Amino acid sequence: MVKLRMRVEGLNRVKRNLQRYGERGMQAMYLAEYAVANNIMTDTLRVTPKYDGWLRNTRFVSKPRKSQPYSDAGFGADYALAVHEMPDDVNWSEPGTGNKFLQRTLDKHQQTAASEMARIAKQALESDRPVTLPQGPNPTKPVTGEGP
Asked: Distance (Å, rounded) from C-alpha 8 to C-alpha 112?
């Protein structure tokens, strides 16, 4: 399994501002974190090596909640970390993919994540609709295994 942490500059300021809105503000924050984590993982899929597709199929993003107010995201394949840490000189089967696939995407989003979360949270707060996370399965336990 490969799962990395990303420190988001300005995130504490965004959270403090949203706390002024009480529970609705915190729900907007959870929604924004989940949306940004999904965007990051979508970008990551574009640079994730694809041999038979199994690694890409083990992608996961968990929904934040009060007991865990952040999203976990990564790949659950048993060999994900080994592929992530392969040397630079590997001949990857699909152009544009390669090692450090998750780290490269996190680095790309590092500077814009807080402003993107603030934008999404603001949009949710300004909406007349309830602020809730999408319904459906919450893949907090990633798919694991060696593949087909």
From this structure: 8
Binning pLDDT at 50, 70 and 90, where does residue 135 land?
A: low
The rounded distance, in Å, linking the Cα atoms of 101 and 108 is 11
Rg (CA), the chain: 17
pTM (predicted TM-score): 0.83
Q: Which residues are CB-contacts of 28 (< 8 A; sequence separation ≥ 6)? A: 18, 21, 120, 121, 122, 124, 125, 131
Quote the crossing angle between the two packed helices 11-19 and 22-47, to the nearest 10°.
Answer: 150
* Cα angle 11, 16, 19; round to 5: 125
**Band (146; pLDDT cuts 50, 70, 90):** low
As given in the structure block, the two tokens for residue 7 are 């420190």
Distance CA 32, CA 75 (A): 21
Q: Could you tell me the two tokens for 31?
A: 């929604």
- What's the longest Cα–Cα distance across the chain? 52
Per-residue burial over 105-133, b if 16 or more Cβ lie within 10 Å, else e, is: bbeebeeebbebbbebbeebbeeeeebee
